[in-house]
Design brief:
35% helix, Rossmann fold, alpha/beta, 60s Ribosomal Protein L30, Chain: A
Length: 313
């Protein structure tokens, strides 16, 4: 018997009366596998969020919409809903503390069960929750389901531990810019956030090097044009010897510029043209742009690059 192989991306679903092995990869997402026990066929979805928000168009990424469409497609082949059984897979809490007290995975699981209860479809199998991802394989002609647990890599564990530490302390930021006025503006803007602490301000990379050793910042805001050593050269040294998330803030980092592309290739996590910050028009724009970027950058993991790699950039 020839079996079709189908891989579902987030937001997709598939139903067929022909034999098919349907596979997907789940983190906080959930898949509902439906099986018609009378005619031996089935289908599966893969949704990311529990429900459609007000004003947002419904799509396959939403559990309430995706699951209803999946059921309707099954019923289009056989209108007797009593022939259908369900399995619910996924909903891992893979986002850790970033869920802000609300687990996306848990909400997705609740939605799946509510939809199935509404249609009176019995759940005969479940593999849900936990703090890990899953590889899912569903044979739609036999209702055979294989779930393989995805263990967290050492890199993922390091990132999670680093992000978790920000629950107990502030994100430490080092500002490197030769202008004391700009350093002061940035410091005032981002220090207003309760989760951020500016641990130092350096006028050049040589001062910054000492502060790196002393304060071990989580994020570095770095200018490019500076005395003694330019920011691009310093960025290479950071990535080579002690990788840390760097946000380039420079007047020569305009969009589509060669320096902007070079900084990104070296390893800058974010790149901002100083003009975007409207530095001399108050703190509001600086705060609105920088604070969110600092928080998103703080948990980024960066690998060391060799001198040979960096020389090619």
């Amino acid at each position: 018997m020839e079996t079709k192989k189908v891989y579902l991306l987030p937001g997709e679903l598939y139903v067929s009366k022909e034999p098919a092995e349907i596979a997907t990869l789940l983190g906080s997402c959930v898949s509902i596998c439906l099986y018609n026990k009378m005619y031996r066929f089935g289908g599966m979805n893969h949704f990311m969020l529990s429900r459609t928000l007000n004003g947002e168009p419904p799509s396959g990424k939403h559990g309430d919409y995706s699951s209803s469409i999946l059921i309707d497609m099954m019923l289009s082949y056989d209108s007797n809903i009593r022939n259908i059984t369900a399995s619910v897979i996924g909903g891992g809490n893979v986002n850790g503390h970033l869920s802000m007290g609300t687990s996306i995975g848990a909400n997705n699981i609740v939605t799946a069960f509510k939809i199935l209860e509404h249609y009176k479809i019995p759940v005969i199998n479940k593999n849900i929750g936990g703090d890990f991802g899953r590889k899912l394989y569903f044979k739609n002609w036999t209702n055979e389901i294989e779930v393989r647990k995805i263990e967290k890599s050492n890199q993922s564990k390091i990132i999670e531990a680093k992000k978790q530490s920000f629950n107990d302390r502030k994100i430490k930021v080092l500002i490197v810019d030769d202008s004391p006025t700009i350093r002061d503006i940035i410091r005032k803007a981002i220090s207003a956030d309760a989760q951020i602490e500016v641990v130092g301000g350096a006028s050049n990379p040589y001062e910054a090097r000492e502060m790196l050793l002393e304060f071990d910042p989580d994020v570095i805001c770095l200018d490019i044009i500076m005395p003694k050593m330019d920011g691009i050269t310093f960025l290479k040294k950071i990535i080579q010897y002690a990788p840390k998330p760097v946000i380039i803030i420079s007047t020569v980092a305009q969009k589509d510029s060669k320096l902007r592309e070079q900084a990104r290739k070296i390893g800058a996590v974010e790149i901002i043209d100083k003009e975007e910050l409207q530095l001399y028009n108050g703190l509001d724009v600086v705060k609105s742009v920088l604070v969110s970027k600092i928080k998103s950058c703080a948990g980024v993991w960066l690998r060391k690059k060799t001198k040979e790699e960096l020389d090619l950039i």
